[in-house]
Amino acid sequence: MSAIPPVSREVLVHTLRSPEITARFSMSDWDMLVRQARAAGLLARLAHRFRQHNLTAILPAVVRWHFEAAETLADKQRTAVRWELQQIRAALSDLDGPLIVLKGAAYVAANLAAAEGRLFNDIDILVPRDALSRAESSLMLAGWHASGLSDYDKRYYRRWMHEIPPLQHIQRDTVIDVHHAILPDTARYHPDSAKLRSRSVPVDGLPGVFVLAAEDRILHSATHLFHDGELPHGLRDLTDLDLLLRDAATDREFWPRLVARADELQLSRSLFYALRYLRHFLDTPVPDSVSIALETAAPNRVTLALMDRIFTRALAPDHASCADAFTPAARLAAFVRAHWLRMPAHLLIPHLFHKAFISPYQRNPKPA
């Protein structure tokens, strides 16, 4: 008998929690798992998890190649990211201070568990605001240039965002996002970038490359997740956080430091949501003392009930089997909420109007 109904919207989540349940999977279960994992960007991470639990041998042959192909791609990208970081470091050799790498590339640079099976779209770096122009000029001389954006989008990035327009290499097509902060200037919360940079730590094997301190990279990951309006890989980002937390929690003093740092950087609400939905989806172990300490950061009961209805749907894999009648509304609500947090109404409304009714005509005179 199948362990999970073939069309279960929870098959990927159950497998992430307890990979050993796949020993009882039917082919319908495997089919659904592959589909959901591919939609969530988690095929390679699952392949690594199966290897950790000595389960690779039980994968049916028609299924195994999906995971092996994804793992091969992830390994290739991991090697490419380390090489690319050396090229970026060389391009920014005249930059005062360290090259601080963020998110997925940071996990690779620091050789963290969260790098296993991680796929990449770009490399994110953090530089001081007053170094943005010099950094951009240096990267342009090394072959990276802004492309594919309208004049409006370029102005939007430079005036309101916490980063300059993405830069793509003219030969290798690699993309760099150059940040001066982790949230836009117009956002409701303003974590101090200087404080983040001050605690950055060097990584072995990549001279001149630094990553955020353990608490800060967790807070950045949580903040990015709950301030991003589009969540096609929300569950993947939750698995990043799960691995980061489990890794850091081997230090007994980690949890008090994390809570204190969240308060210092005005990110306690993001941490509250991250821990809440990590427990919901992945059973991430969180001490009771941490939950109690973050109660003051929680929204009121009505808002929290609404957030639960939104994020339990929006963070699920973006696949039809994981959706119900309310999922489109939940994803739209997550999109609107993120923009509301990032921009005040007098900026947000004209921006959304432009993106909805003007930008499509600028790209295509006869939009579908």
Question: If you had to describe this structure to a student in words, what would you say it looks like?
Answer:
- By secondary structure, the chain is of the alpha/beta class.
- The chain has a single domain, classed as Beta Polymerase, domain 2 (2-Layer Sandwich), CATH 3.30.460.
- Helices cover 55% and strands 7% of the residues.
- It is built from 16 helices and seven strands.
- The chain has helices spanning 11-17, 27-40, 43-52, 61-91, 103-109, 132-141, 151-160, 193-198, 214-226, 234-248, 254-264, 268-282, 288-293, 301-314, 327-342, 345-363; strands at 99-102, 123-126, 144-146, 167-169, 175-179, 201-202, 209-211.
- A seven-stranded mixed β-sheet has the order 3-4-5-2-1-7-6.
- A hairpin with a 6-residue loop joins strand 6 (201-202) and strand 7 (209-211).
- Helix 9 (214-226) packs across helix 11 (254-264) and helix 10 packs across helix 12 (268-282).
- The radius of gyration is 21 Å and the shape is globular.
- The chain starts with 10 loop residues before the first helix and ends in a 5-residue tail after the last helix.
- The relative contact order is 0.10.
- Residues 1-7 have low confidence and may be disordered.
Protein structure class: alpha/beta
Order of helices and strands: HHHHEHEHEHEEHEEHHHHHHHH
Count the domains.
1
Biggest sheet details? 7 strands, mixed
Average pLDDT across residues?
A: 91
Please write the CATH class name: Alpha Beta
**Intertermini distance:** 47 Å
Percent helix among the residues? 55-70%
- What is the number of helices? 16
Q: Beta-strand level of the residues, as a percent range?
A: 5-15%
Q: What's the Cα radius of gyration?
A: 21 Å
Task: Tell me, briefly, the overall form.
Answer: globular
Sequence stretches where pLDDT stays below 50 over 5 or more residues: 1-7
User: What is the CATH topology descriptor?
Assistant: Beta Polymerase, domain 2
In oligomeric terms, what are we looking at?
single chain
Give the name of the CATH architecture. 2-Layer Sandwich
